[in-house]
């Protein structure tokens, strides 16, 4: 949405533009939210900005700088409530008041208890404040941030590709390629927006993945491997840490020889007393991760779902049939014996991607 196509008299259109600005920093802001801001004066956009990464100024500050003295008496649009606390940067609410803004239009309140209070402060300063414009769009934009601050855990996405009959590989374990080039491009884009991507040892041994964004986007995620015994080959793509960082979670007293070899190649090793999805997600939360992508096999996927470490599903469905009673499926044993126990997804969407279909939904 460009200024030429915006209805500058529409709060809805301008809030959508804020969300578009915010999304430009997807994958770069953790643990901070995605925020975009616009300043409108006399029917003209006089300033725009978005938060580029943690430690940098917030979106409102960039918009105010761009507007300069034209912010006096103007309306400020922002998709998330201006912060009211001093973190790595000063409170945005104070900057908005100081700039002489007359009206503030906000997409949604900030769910972070440390940051909220900006709305009340702006109103106390005599500024007209409107809250709840395009709120569903604003929630979806920052679903990972909202989950992180309300559950003290990263937002987990399970991604897999399967045939129409529900297989992720042949009975011989061959899986390249189930989905088409367009679907794989979408996965690369998704990786660039996530802070970490997780696989198990079997995926490393059988598929030798890269787990990079392959040039889609401007960054690669932290590549994470879960391996209890470190029974891993020494010549895998994930050990090329000059391409992207790799972190291997294992258990104490795992293979010391493999551990030393991986450390020499620049791989970070973290040994836990008990290697579980919950423990890994807790560690990634402490490192500041906001979005975590699970690209693992069925056994680990089932454990991640059972542990509550998956909130969203990305399932690529290829119009192919491969059969095989022993061919693996995307999700292993969950212990259910009745269909009434099945986990139902909500807010489901299905989108054609090349010859495939992408189904998204929330657990």
Summarize the structure.
The protein has helices spanning 11-23, 59-67, 92-98, 118-124, 135-141, 143-151, 181-193, 201-207, 256-264, 277-286, 298-306, and strands at 36-41, 44-50, 75-80, 103-108, 128-131, 155-163, 196-200, 222-226, 246-251, 268-272, 291-294, 312-318, 346-353, 356-362. It is of the alpha/beta class and 363 residues long.
Mean pLDDT: 93
What's the count of strands? Answer: 14
Give the CA-CA distance, first to last residue: 31 Å
Order of helices and strands: HEEHEHEHEHHEHEHEEHEHEHEEE
Helix content: 25-40%
Q: Based on helices, strands and strand pairing, what is the structural class?
A: alpha/beta
In oligomeric terms, what are we looking at?
single chain
The strand line-up of the biggest sheet is 10-9-8-7-11-6-12-14-13
Q: Report the uncertain regions.
A: none
Task: Describe the largest sheet.
Answer: 9 strands, mixed
Note the beta-strand portion: 15-25%
Gyration radius, in Å:
23 Å
Q: What is the molecular shape?
A: elongated
How many alpha or pi helices?
Answer: 11
Describe the structure.
The chain is of the alpha/beta class. The protein contains eleven helices and 14 strands. The strands form two sheets. It has a nine-stranded mixed sheet, sandwiched between helices. A five-stranded mixed sheet has the order 2-1-3-4-5, with helices on both faces.
